[in-house]
Amino acid sequence: MTNKLYLIRGLPGSGKTTYAKSLNCFYVEADMFHYKNGKYQFHRANLPSAHKWTLAIVASALINGAFDIAVSNTFVRKEQMQPYIDLAKISGYQVVIITMKNNYKSTHNVPDDVIQKYRAEWEPVQGEQEVS
């Protein structure tokens, strides 16, 4: 049986984290990088570091190769998922792309204008599975 790398994408407040946790596998998301001493402390300047950190965690987990992995991020464009897809292929993992379509309130208080920007830039991905 082939291990899976789930790429869970969606707008802020769409239920990505909740869905990732429901898979009962190892999961990681860039938001985890922003927690300091148990408190969410987002700074836009840290976004590149947060995404590099997430990719490094996933690369390490893929090397282990003994379990399914879920990555929960907005992934507005396919190019944002591509490094994960490339690592999965090298590691023999099956990639499953899940797009969350729920519309809850963002737990991190992402401003509406940012959500609208993401919505306008949203790129559908061939083969994605939609969950609402």
What are the SSEs and their pairings?
Blueprint: E1 4-9, H1 16-22, E2 26-28, E3 35-36, E4 39-40, H2 47-64, E5 69-72, H3 78-91, E6 94-100, H4 112-121, E7 129-131
Parallel strand pairs: 1-5, 1-6, 2-5, 6-7
Antiparallel strand pairs: 3-4
Summary of the model, kept short:
This protein is 37% helix and 20% strand. With 132 residues, the protein is an alpha/beta fold. The strands form two sheets. It has a five-stranded parallel β-sheet with strand order 2-5-1-6-7, with helices on both faces. It has a two-stranded antiparallel ribbon with strand order 3-4.
Order of helices and strands: EHEEEHEHEHE
> Helix- and strand-based class?
alpha/beta
Please give the order of strands in the largest beta sheet.
2-5-1-6-7
Q: Main β-sheet, in a few words?
A: 5 strands, parallel
Determine the N-to-C terminus distance: 28 Å
The level of helicity is 25-40%
Q: Give the integer mean of the pLDDT values.
A: 87
Tally of distinct domains: 1
CATH topology: Rossmann fold
Looking at this structure, what is the CATH superfamily?
P-loop containing nucleotide triphosphate hydrolases
The percent range for strand residues is 15-25%
Give the tally of β-strands: 7
Q: Could you list the spans in which at least 5 consecutive residues all have pLDDT below 50?
A: none
Question: What's the CATH architecture name?
Answer: 3-Layer(aba) Sandwich
Radius of gyration, CA atoms, in whole angstroms: 14 Å
- The rough form would be described as globular
The number of helical runs is: 4
What is the CATH level 1 assignment? Alpha Beta
